[in-house]
Amino acid sequence: MSIRRISALALLMLTLGSTAAAIAVPNPLEPETIAQNQRPNRPGGKEGGMFEKLNLSADQKQKMQAVRDRYKDQISQRMQAVRQARQELQTMMAGATNTSQIRDKHRQIMELRQQLEDVQFESMLSMREVLTPEQRSQWSQLMQQRRESAKNRMQNSPKPQ
After folding, report:
1. Residue from 58, 56, 18, 55 nearest 38 by CA
2. How far apart are CA 48 and CA 43, in angstroms?
3. What are the Polar residues biased-composition ranges (predicted)?
């Protein structure tokens, strides 16, 4: 499995339970991140969400919540750092900053994004450990459906002009 697929998988897993705010990443390979405290009728929300479809036991739900709690601050901090660095890059691009400094800022953003993806991946692995082999298989299918849905949304979204 490629690192991009693993990263996307980690990102999707966090859409299931992260309490962090959504991050807008203009990369067609990454679906948008969805916060945990959504309206119930939205995909990934508490009602009818992926975890409901997996039919988790009470113990599994408690363990999943513990995983979310363990990683949510790290994820939130890293997401905020990416947002802030992206804003700084945007400001630099509009100003008189030299190309070398802009490249350095871009590298910083890439490093921050990698750190975020690493934490998300670790969170996903921890959640995976809670699932039975049958639930893992079902989870994989559900995440594939989410990836396809996200891809379709991105392809059908209006393009900025």
Report:
1. 18
2. 8
3. 134-144, 152-161
The two tokens of residue 35 are 């916060």
Q: Find tokens 């994004």 and name the residue.
A: 113
* CA distances in angstroms from 145 to 15, 45, 98, 113, 138, listed in the order given: 14, 16, 44, 24, 11
| Burial (0-12, 13-18, 19+ Cβ within 10 Å), 20 | buried
The CATH code for residues 56-147 is 1.20.120
pTM over 0.70: no
- A 10 A CB-CB count for 110 gives 12
Q: For the chain, 161 residues long, give each residue's pLDDT as a single digit of tens.
A: 555 555 554 544 544 443 333 333 333 333 333 333 333 333 344 445 777 889 999 999 999 999 999 999 999 999 999 999 999 999 999 999 999 999 999 999 999 999 999 999 999 999 999 999 999 999 889 989 988 998 888 888 776 65
